[in-house]
Structure formats: C-alpha cells, structure tokens
User: Fold these one by one.
Assistant:
Number 1:
Amino acid sequence: MNRIGKLALVAGILAIALAVPMAAANVIFVYQAQVTVKPVTPIVWLYGPDANYVSLSLSNTSPQVKLTIPVTNSSETYVYQALEVKVNAGSPNLYVDSCSYSGPNLLTSVELIVYLTAESPSSPIGTITITPSNTSCAVSGSNSIPLTAGNTYYIDFLVQPSLPIPNSARSGTLTIYFGLTNESAQPVPTP
C-alpha cells in the first residue's frame, strides 16, 4: 500500500472513531415554560348585611376589624350579620389574637357569635367573648372556632352595657385582630 493509501485508511478509521461517540452522546433538550398561578386567599373578610349598625371597617390585608359599639340603655344590643367570613381554602381555626378598646367604660362584654350563613344564630358553631375596658381587652370563651373551606359564616355581635348609661355617654371603638391557625398547604393545580 502506498503512502497516500495508508493516510487515507488512517483518516477513514479516525473519522469513524470520532463519529461513534458523537452519535452515542445524549441529546439534551431545554424547554422553557411559563405558568400563571392564581393565588388563593384562604379567608376573605366581607361586610355583612347589617355592618352599618356598628360602623364596621375592616382590612383584608391583616385580619383587623374596627367597629363603633352602639351604647344604649337597653340590657343588650344584638347586631345581626355584621361581619361575613368566606373560607376559600383549608380548614383554619378562627380566634381573636388581640383587641383594644377606646371610649368610656360602659361595656360589660361583647360576644362574637359565629354561624353558617345558611343556619340560624341560635345554633352557632362557636362564640368568643370580649371584655373591653380602657386598660385591657380580655378574651374568653371557646376562642378557637373551626371553619371549613367552601363555607361562608356570619359573625354577630351581642353587646352588653353596664347600666345605667349616663346621659353624656359617647360610643366607644373596639378593634379586633383575628388570627388563623391550622391552615393547611393547598396544592396548586397544573395548567
């Protein structure tokens, strides 16, 4: 074999030797995906049908509710359906984290009565009692009410004043900070 033939043979073998690993190499594809996830707010706080009777103001960014308590000489004032709570996800427990009161010391207690919107307040799923004063705001009662996803609840306020109310009495403002425990992680559906 002449020199050119030998070089051609070596070049051919070299080309085959280089082609085999390249053909056996794994091919990697890179995909880029864009996913839009709609966040789910576990609980939404809404004004109830009778929110105007307690001058209710609320914030969904932090579970804070402010209400101006009507003070009368009646033995109690019951405000129906002042606050509405819609549970979108999870099974959280609702409780009063803290509260504050500004105004005259005219209240014995304010009871929060929680029940399903389809039910009656006479069959509540739980109650929380707040005893407000200018120096403190004590919370008693069950103080942890289980809520279920897909349900909407009303919170009624039962206000019991200290009687008799003086003629110069003015209304007070109760601020309630709600808390949620036992919130479960929610799966995000794929598009």
Number 2:
Amino acid sequence: MSTIPSTSKRHSVPYTVVGGGRSGRARRFPTPLTLLLLNRGGRFFKHAFFEELTRLGPEEIISIEGPTASYEIENLSRDFPSVKFMVLHEPTSRGEQINLGVEEAKGELVFVIWNDMKLSPSSIATRILERVRESDSLCTVPLVQNARLETVPTIMAPAFYNKLLKVLALQPSSDGIMSLFPFDYCGVYNKERFILVGGYDSSLENPYWQKMDFGFRSYMWGEKILCSTALHVSYSGELPSEDATPDEGYEVFFLKNLSVRFTGDSGVLPRSRLFPYIFRSGGAVSALRAFSRARAWVEVNRFRFKQDARSVTELWEVPEV
C-alpha cells in the first residue's frame, strides 16, 4: 500500500475502522471519489447529515472520528453500513487526519469537507470530476459560501512586502485561479499527487502554518492548487477563525520553505542562514538543532525542488497593502 513519505518526524496514529462494508451499489463515477469528512463542534443532526451524503452517491465516505467518539458511532454504522468510520485512538492535527484518511481512501480523488458544510450535488457530477482529474492539480479548491450564501474570499495569494511575507484572502475571480493552499483544508485532493508530495506535516500543530507549509512545498516541488468555481460548498454556521501568530510551527515553516534557495537543479538550505536564524530565534542550542534537522530534510529532498519561495510568490499578482 502506498504511504505518505515523511515530511518531518512523524509517528503512526493508531485507529480503528468501524463499518465501511460494500454496499453492492454499482459505481456511479468513472473517476472513483471518496468523501473524507472532518468533524468539529456539536454532533447534532449527524444522522440527517449522513443521509444527505449517502444520497449523493460517492464511491466511498470516510468519517474521521476523534478518540472521544461516543456510542453513536455504533448506531450510525448500523444505519449507514457503507460509511467507514475511522476512530483515532489519540488526538492529532487536522492535517494528519487528512493524511490518514487519504491513505485509507479507495478513491482516485478525495474530497475533504467538514460536518458543518453543505456540499452541492452538482459539485460531484461526473463531468465536473473528470475536469478536476484532467487538470492535473494536486488539489482543486471549491467556491466557498457562508450561511447567507455569500461568496467568501478563500483564494490565498502570497506576496513579499519589504521582505515580509503576507498572505491575502481574495475572491475567486475566475475559474482555474491559483490558491496557495486550501482554505480550511477543504478541496478535492488527487490521492497519488498528495502522497508523492508528502501530505501535511504532522509536527506542525497550528493549522495555519501546517497549510502554509503544505502550500509552499507543493508549489516549490512543481505542483499546483487551483480553484474550480463549479465546486460549491457552504457553511451552515460561522466561518472558522485562524491564528497566524508566529510560533514554533512558524519556525519550522520558515526553515523548510522561506530559507531554501533554488540553485537551478536542486534546493539547498545555505549554512549562511544559520546565524541570522539563531539571532532571531533567541535560543542558540535549540535553534542549531532545528536548523540541522531542516537542513538534513532539504538535503534528502533537494532534487524535488523546482523553485524557491520567492519564485512561488511571483506567480501571483496581488494589490499593494
């Protein structure tokens, strides 16, 4: 079985699979699709939610359940025998949940959504999925609407201003527009490309830096993340907030992405970046260890780099801020 290669030091999260037996239903889509469901907040109306998802007729539905999953899983698996419930035995980051779900998925395409989202039936129409597959993108992100069906600015565009990196959230102005990373992790992932790029870094606990790392790494390694306005999801409640405060996750992101230089045929983390990094981090011993780990990671993956972070930001035209 294909597994996601390590993008950092990561451990295998144990889990139990409940349900997911074959439904006997004929395959509806030429391109097999897995709906991968992430859960948060209250669990009200979950029965009705699964009824709605199963009516859409995807090849497979996987629901990621945390270690505090209640007795309702047994009842739900009985009522929805075709749904696969992955019950994790310990808490883990959202990105790692997606890594596990993609590895478990049978579909060539994996559509990651949340339990507080509504998925438009037209979004998984055969012609739409075929266009997504033929785009050869690592991930195709949807047009996102709030509970009032207003389009939300979810296209992430990076730029450097006075040597400082800023990421702006823009409206999807056209079909096929690029996004640095999937807003709220939501999108249709190409399973093979996702695995080859290494998935999400499970060592990064802050979702914002986890997605930033995934996005920059994907583009630096020659992949792309595009928006399809034919894909529609809407939130049933408030949009999630994000914490972009620089923390330990930012330090890892900085070393693995912003500090890498592309030499023309490979990526390198120059030794000359060490002392500026130690100076800004404030702890010489821990900074040296972090730098050494990042430099070793870059060395292992050096020939996968096709460009550096500065070149990635030049792909976007964003307004001055």
